[in-house]
Design a protein that fits this description.
By secondary structure, this protein is mostly helical. Helix content is about 65%, strand content about 5%.
Length: about 100
């Protein structure tokens, strides 16, 4: 994974940790599922055993993190990397 992808994954782990206690196994599952989603252009849940309340709280925490300007830039870079529009860590216009 690239630096931007690792930062994005770390933010997701932090958001999940703000919702509930995470065991090391949970963190491992989140990282593996995040990578799987990136590699397969999917958006499957990072953890399968979340309650409805935890899912809602996680969505709220992610939304809070996405409002941070640095996370916006990281999300843009990761999306561009997945789409193949990044050179040397810089987003290109597809040129």
């Amino acid at each position: 994974m690239t630096d931007a992808q690792i930062k994005q994954c770390t933010a997701k782990v932090k958001a999940m940790a703000d919702v509930r206690r995470l065991a090391i196994e949970d963190t491992d599952v989140i990282i593996n599922q995040f990578y799987h989603n990136l590699s397969n252009d999917q958006d499957k849940p990072l953890l399968n055993d979340l309650t409805l309340e935890e899912k809602e709280a996680f969505a709220k925490k992610e939304k809070e993190l996405n409002g941070v300007p640095e996370m916006d830039k990281i999300n843009d870079v990761v999306e561009a990397q997945v789409d193949g529009k990044v050179t040397n860590g810089e987003v290109t216009n597809g040129v």
